[in-house]
Design goal:
Shape of chain A: globular
Largest sheet of chain B: none
Structural class of chain A: mainly alpha
Radius of gyration of chain A: 21 Å
Distance between the termini of chain B: 69 Å
Shape of chain B: globular
Order of helices and strands of chain B: HHHHHHHHHHHHHH
Helix content of chain B: 55-70%
Number of domains of chain B: 1
Helix content of chain A: over 70%
Structural class of chain B: mainly alpha
Oligomer: heterodimer
Strand content of chain B: under 5%
CATH superfamily of the largest domain in chain A: NADH-ubiquinone/plastoquinone oxidoreductase chain 6, subunit NuoJ
Distance between the termini of chain A: 64 Å
Number of helices of chain B: 14
Strand content of chain A: under 5%
CATH architecture of the largest domain in chain A: Up-down Bundle
Order of helices and strands of chain A: HHHHHHH
Number of domains of chain A: 2
C-alpha cells in the first residue's frame, strides 16, 4: 500500500463499493438494487486485486457477480410481486439505528484493535497455494462444504419435483 | 523459444517494437509509471483497432459467405462486390434516431449496450497474440476468461428487462438459462485442459503446447467439442441463437433497440465470437505457434489466421444448421455434454496422474493418451447418443410443486390447491 497508484485505486474502489452498497438499500426498484449489488461485488473484486489476491478477485467476479446475482435476478423475475419494488416500512428508523450501531461497533473495533502485521513475503501465485491448502490442511471443511451444497441441491430438486414422480407412477 | 534478435524492427512479435519504445522512454528519464501507462494505452488501442477492423471485415465476409451457402448473392451494390456495405451499415446505424420506448426503464435501457460491450472487449486483455503481445498475462488467465465472459449475461438481462417488452424479457431469460447451463460445461472442459497443462496462465498453456509439439486439440477431443458448442451458445450464433430467434420472439433481448444502441449489441456479439475463437486457438490449437513456423512468419499472423479459421467454422454452421429448440438445447447441455465433460475430466485427470507417477516420457505418453482419448471420445459420443436415443423420454411440462403451493405463477386460472 505504499505507491500512490494502489492508494488511489483503494479509495476509488472503496468509494464505488460503499456508494453502490448504499444504492442497494436506498433504491426502490428491485432490479436497480441488484445492478448496484453487482457493481459493489465488482468493487470488492477490485479491492482484492489491490491486495494481490488475484485468484480470490477473479473468483469473486465469477461466483458473486456472475452466478449469485444472476440467480437473484431470476428469483426477482419469477416472483409475481417483483416489479412492485421496495415498499415503505415502519421499521425504517429502528433499522437505521441498528445499522448505525453495527457500523459504529465494527469501526470502533477496527480502529481500536492493535492488529498484528505479518512480515512474511506475499505469495507469487495464490491459486496453487489455495489449492494445496484446501486439499491438504483444510480438506475436512472443504468436503463438508461440498456435501452441504449437494444436500441443498437435492432439496431444491425435491421441492420442485412434479406430483407424478412423488406418487411413484 | 529462441529469438534471433529482438530489436524494434523484429516484426515477428510486435511486442519487441513496443518493448524498445518503452526502453527509450525509460532512457529519457521518465518516471516508472509512464512506460506502464503507455504500454497499456498502446495495447488497448491496438486491440480496439483490430477488433473494429475485424468486425467490419467479417460483417461483409459473413453476409457474402452465408449468401453463397444459401444460393443467393448477398450484398453487392455498395462499392466493388459490396465491400463498402459494412461502412454503409455502420453509418446508417450511427445516424438513426435512438428511440427509447415510453415505458422503458430509461437508465438501464441506456446502460445495457455499454455494459454489454465492456466484458467482451476486456477478455482480449489476457489473450496472447504473440510471445510478448499480451496486455496482461494473468496467472489466473483461464479463470478470468470464464469470469468476465459470464458478466455478459447481466448486461443482456438488463437490456431485456428494461425494454418492457415481453419478447425482450423472454429472450433475456432464455439467455440466462442457456448461459447458466453452458457455463458449467465451459468450466469443466477448460478444467480438463488446465489440469493437463498444470497452469492457468494462457502464455504457459501456449508454451506447453509448443514445447511438446502437440495441440491439446489432439489430446482432448471431447473438451474441444464441448467448448465449441458452449462457445456457440455463449456468442449466440445461429444454430443456438434461441435468445434472439427471429422466428419465435422477434429479436429477443434487443427487440426494442435501434440505431447505434443496436449497433453496440451487434458488435458485442461479433466480439464475443472472436473472443471464443481466440480462446479455442490459444487453449486447444497452440496459440501463436505452428511447429517452428513462428520463427519465420510473425506469430500474430499465425494466431489471426487460426482465429479467423475457427470463426469461419461458426459462420459455416450458421449457414448450414437449423436452429435448435430451447428444450433441445437445454437437454443437450444437461443430459449429453455435462456427463461427457465430467468423464473427460476424469480421464484427463487419470492420465495426468499416470504420466506423473509412472514417470513416462512425453514421447511415449502423449501419443498413447491421444489415441486413447480419441477412441474414448468416439465411443462415448456414439454410445451415449445411442443410450439417450433409446430412452422413452417424457416431454410433458409439469408445473413445479413449489410454485403450485405458493401459488406463484398461474396463467389466467386460479392456482390449484395441493
Amino acid at each position: 500500500m505504499d505507491d500512490t497508484g494502489t492508494v488511489v485505486a483503494f479509495y476509488l474502489l472503496s468509494a464505488i463499493t460503499i456508494s453502490s452498497a448504499l444504492g442497494v438499500v436506498v433504491v426502490r426498484n428491485l432490479i436497480h438494487a441488484v445492478v448496484f449489488l453487482i457493481l459493489s461485488f465488482v468493487g470488492v473484486a477490485g479491492l482484492y486485486i489491490t491486495l494481490s489476491a488475484d485468484f480470490i478477485a477473479v473468483t469473486q467476479v465469477l461466483i458473486y457477480a456472475g452466478a449469485v446475482s444472476v440467480l437473484i435476478l431470476f428469483a426477482i423475475v419469477l416472483t409475481p410481486t417483483g416489479d412492485r419494488g421496495n415498499q415503505e416500512t415502519f421499521l425504517r428508523l429502528p433499522a437505521l439505528l441498528l445499522a448505525l450501531l453495527v457500523a459504529f461497533t465494527l469501526g470502533y473495533v477496527a480502529i481500536d484493535t492493535d492488529w498484528a502485521i505479518s512480515d512474511r513475503e506475499g505469495f507469487q501465485q495464490t491459486a496453487s497455494v489455495i489449492g494445496e491448502a484446501l486439499l491438504d490442511k483444510y480438506v475436512l471443511p472443504f468436503e463438508i462444504a461440498s456435501v452441504l451444497l449437494l444436500v441443498a441441491m437435492m432439496g431444491a430438486i425435491l421441492l420442485v419435483r412434479p406430483d407424478s414422480a412423488m406418487e411413484g407412477k | 523459444m529462441m529469438r534471433l534478435d529482438a530489436d524494434w524492427y523484429d516484426f515477428r512479435d510486435l511486442g519487441n517494437t513496443v518493448g524498445s519504445l518503452l526502453e527509450q522512454i525509460r532512457d529519457w528519464g521518465a518516471p516508472d509509471w509512464v512506460p506502464y501507462v503507455v504500454s497499456g494505452l498502446i495495447g488497448v488501442l491496438a486491440i480496439l483497432l483490430w477488433t473494429i477492423l475485424s468486425v467490419l471485415a467479417f460483417i461483409w465476409i459473413e453476409r457474402r459467405v452465408v449468401g453463397l451457402m444459401q444460393n443467393r448473392i448477398g450484398p453487392n451494390r455498395v462499392g466493388p462486390n459490396g465491400l463498402l456495405q459494412p461502412v454503409a451499415d455502420a453509418l446508417k446505424l450511427l445516424f438513426k434516431e435512438p428511440i427509447t420506448t415510453r415505458d422503458a426503464d430509461r437508465i438501464l435501457f441506456w446502460l445495457a449496450p455499454i455494459v454489454v460491450f465492456v466484458p467482451t472487449i476486456v477478455v482480449f486483455a489476457v489473450i496472447p497474440f504473440g510471445e510478448r503481445m499480451v496486455l496482461a498475462d494473468l496467472n489466473v488467465g483461464v479463470l478470468f476468461l470464464i469470469a468476465v465472459g459470464s458478466l455478459n449475461t447481466i448486461a443482456i438481462f438488463m437490456a431485456g428487462w428494461s425494454s418492457n417488452n415481453k419478447y425482450a424479457l423472454i429472450g433475456a431469460m432464455r439467455t440466462i438459462a442457456m448461459l447458466i447451463s453452458y457455463e458449467l460445461i465451459q468450466v469443466l472442459v477448460l478444467l480438463a485442459a488446465v489440469l493437463f497443462v498444470g497452469s492457468m496462465r494462457l502464455g504457459d498453456i501456449v508454451a506447453w503446447q509448443a514445447d511438446y509439439g502437440v495441440w491439446i486439440l489432439f489430446l482432448q477431443p471431447l473438451g474441444v467439442l464441448g467448448y465449441i458448442v458452449a462457445g456457440a451458445v455463449e456468442m449466440n450464433r445461429s444454430p443456438t441463437d434461441i435468445a434472439e430467434a427471429e422466428s419465435e420472439i422477434v429479436a429477443g433481448y434487443h427487440t426494442e433497440y435501434g440505431g447505434i444502441k443496436f449497433g453496440f449489441f451487434y458488435q458485442a456479439e461479433y466480439l464475443a465470437g472472436f473472443a471464443i475463437a481466440a480462446v479455442i486457438v490459444t487453449l486447444y490449437m497452440g496459440g501463436w505457434t505452428l511447429w517452428g513456423l513462428e520463427e519465420w512468419v510473425p506469430g500474430w499472423l499465425i494466431f489471426l489466421g487460426k482465429l479467423y479459421g475457427v470463426f469461419f467454422i461458426y459462420i459455416w454452421s450458421r449457414g448450414t444448421l437449423p436452429r435448435l429448440r430451447i428444450d433441445q438445447l437445454m437437454a443437450f447441455a444437461w443430459k449429453f455434454l455435462l456427463p461427457l465433460s465430467l468423464v473427460n475430466v476424469m480421464i484427463v485427470g487419470g492420465e495426468k496422474l499416470l504420466w506423473q507417477e509412472a514417470e513416462l516420457s512425453s514421447g511415449e505418453a502423449l501419443p498413447v493418451f491421444g489415441v486413447i482419448n480419441w477412441v474414448m471420445a468416439v465411443a462415448l459420443i456414439a454410445g451415449w447418443a445411442w443410450f439417450l436415443g433409446h430412452q422413452h423420454q417424457e416431454r410433458v411440462a409439469h408445473r413445479a410443486l413449489l410454485t403450485k403451493e405458493v401459488g406463484a405463477i398461474h396463467f389466467g386460472e386460479p392456482a390449484p390447491t395441493v
